[in-house]
Specification:
Radius of gyration: 20 Å
CATH architecture of the largest domain: Sandwich
Number of helices: 11
Number of strands: 10
CATH superfamily of the largest domain: Regulatory protein AraC
Keywords: DNA-binding
CATH class of the largest domain: Mainly Beta
Domain HTH araC/xylS-type: 190-288
Structural class: alpha+beta
Strand order of the largest sheet: 1-2-9-4-7-10
Strand content: 15-25%
InterPro entries: HTH_AraC
Helix content: 40-55%
Protein name: AraC family transcriptional regulator
Pfam families: HTH_18
Length: 289
């Protein structure tokens, strides 16, 4: 099944919405939104404790910092976090595109607490409906030219935010299980993610990664799967495939060269992994994008 074609906005832009008596009566309201491509994105300096960020990272790799903690965000990840402190996103890869919404409303805190995780990052399937909800919400708020009144927009935008939270809850990790993990375990997971992001071009065995963070192979595989929702092997493969997507879209390198540059041992292994993940061949992906 080929990747679904989505019509993204033709221009990058940011929009701000002033609250009013009508907006305050809805479960969710949007105070700010954008479809952007920035080298650096900073939030929290003008926001308050009752506002929350929903950000869908479309492509590229970005470094996310909050409360002096740093995480690496991969494509098709959603960041859900409170805006009660400064949030800094710094682009690591050549490109980074994302949707974001600053939301409030009577239900915002309650639903945010249902999906929050230690790092505030939820990995999504690009074929799932989370991205479609983000795109529909942005369209309703910024591009719809239909003669609908404000009530229609408030009702539908509130419904879509509810749908986003519902989908994220379905995709999220087992929150109670994750909260049982010790800080040492969580720090070692982040150390592993950073090591993978810096060494994905090299041979990355499970033994190599677990040795880097000081855990046994079997124990580390268990806690990695528990927190990330995928195995180490699956994560490394997806990371390499996302890097390959960047090269396919922005370079003229051959398929063989790209396979080698992103760490696959053979082109055949790369082709099989890419098609299994993206549901199209690398050549088809390059032609499509």
């Amino acid at each position: 099944m080929p990747s679904p074609k989505r019509d993204f906005p033709k221009k990058f832009n940011t929009y701000y919405f002033s609250p009013n008596s009508m907006s305050d009566s809805f479960p969710f309201t949007v105070k700010e939104c954008g479809y952007c491509s920035e080298r650096k994105f900073v939030l929290g300096e003008k926001n308050n404790y009752n506002e929350y960020l929903l950000l869908y990272s479309l492509d590229g790799t970005v470094r996310y910092t909050k409360d002096k903690r740093t995480f690496y965000v991969q494509p098709n990840s959603v960041i859900t976090t409170a805006c009660n402190t400064t949030l800094t996103f710094t682009r690591v890869s050549k490109e980074w595109k994302y949707y974001y919404f600053i939301i409030g409303g009577s239900h915002a805190k309650r639903f945010y607490n249902l999906v929050r995780t230690h790092d505030n990052i939820i990995l999504c399937n690009p074929f799932a409906n989370v991205l479609d909800h983000f795109m529909d919400l942005y369209y309703i708020l910024t591009e719809s030219t239909e003669p609908y009144n404000d009530v229609w927009k408030y009702i539908h935008s509130s419904m879509l935010i509810h749908n986003i939270f519902t989908s994220l809850y379905d995709l999220a990790f087992n929150i109670s299980t994750i909260k049982e993990m010790t800080p040492a375990q969580e720090n070692n997971i982040n150390a592993a993610l950073k090591y993978i992001s810096l060494n994905y071009k090299d041979e990355l065995s499970i033994e190599t990664i677990s040795n880097q963070v000081g855990f046994s192979k079997y124990y580390f595989c268990k806690i990695f799967k528990k927190q990330m929702g995928v195995t180490i092997h699956q994560y490394v493969n997806e990371f390499r495939i996302n890097k390959a997507k960047e090269l396919l879209a922005y370079s003229k390198l051959s398929i063989n060269s790209i396979a080698s540059q992103v760490g696959f041992k053979t082109t055949l292994t790369f082709l099989r992994a890419f098609e299994r993940s993206v549901h199209m061949t690398p050549s088809e992906y390059r032609d499509y994008y």
